[in-house]
Amino acid sequence: MKVATWNVNSLRARFDRLKGFLGRHAPDVVCLQETKLEDSAFPVQELAALGYESVFFGQRTYNGVAILAKETPSDVIKGFGDLADDPQCRFLAVRVGNLRIASLYVPNGGEVGSDKFLYKLSWMARWRAWLSARPADERPHLLCGDFNVAPEDRDVHDPVAWKDQVLCHPDERKALTAVREVGYEDVFRRHHDAAGLYSWWDYRMLGFPKNRGLRIDHVYARRDFAAASSSCLIDREERKGKLPSDHAPVLVELAAP
DNA sequence: ATGGTTGCTTAGCAA
Prior knowledge:
Layout: E1 2-7, H1 11-25, E2 29-33, H2 44-49, E3 53-57, E4 65-69, E5 74-78, E6 91-96, E7 99-105, H3 115-133, E8 142-146, H4 159-162, H5 170-183, E9 184-186, H6 187-191, E10 200-201, E11 213-214, E12 217-222, E13 229-234, E14 250-254
The structure holds one DNA strand of 15 nucleotides.
């Protein structure tokens, strides 16, 4: 089966591009981030017409995650269900067939040391806690989304300029390592060693034409499931042309559990 | 240090 994740930076603004993407790749499951749509505005019918059922957890203007699937999703989980009183819609998990999968949008973090940065670190700790609190066989096989962290310097176009900056800061990388230590693996790095492979490029300053990007969109697989993946690709084509998102989709081919 | 671009919402914020 084929699974994709894509930060669309507004589903309203990107709907035509999403349609083209679904037509080209025919993924079985698609995780979306930054839908920026209230649930009442989610294009359920339009996606049903394309052969996809939708599960969504959104809000007006900001954030918002969704999962589209050819098969009917079940076991829907919205947010971490912890004691934090968090109005931001950033985590959604479902089951599609036997595959458990989460679509997540880690907070950007603003500036290092800011309130937003502290929120990012605390959100990542809550994410890790949510995972470790679940029985291992009930954890998502795949964690997909905009993690807003470049895990290593080879994921960064200019590691010197980005050193200790948000998206690359050691505290964020440690928080991400803690998630992997629950029992996850970066699927992309199972299949590619090279530097210079990115999933996000700033809209400004010709970021994409100059390939000044970061690899911050990831698919993490449960360690007992990672070997089921046969490929993982970043679809740079989707960053080209008219009205692209600033993120490219990540696609994984895998044997269904 | 600021600016640059896009989206949502309408001047300014978030990314």
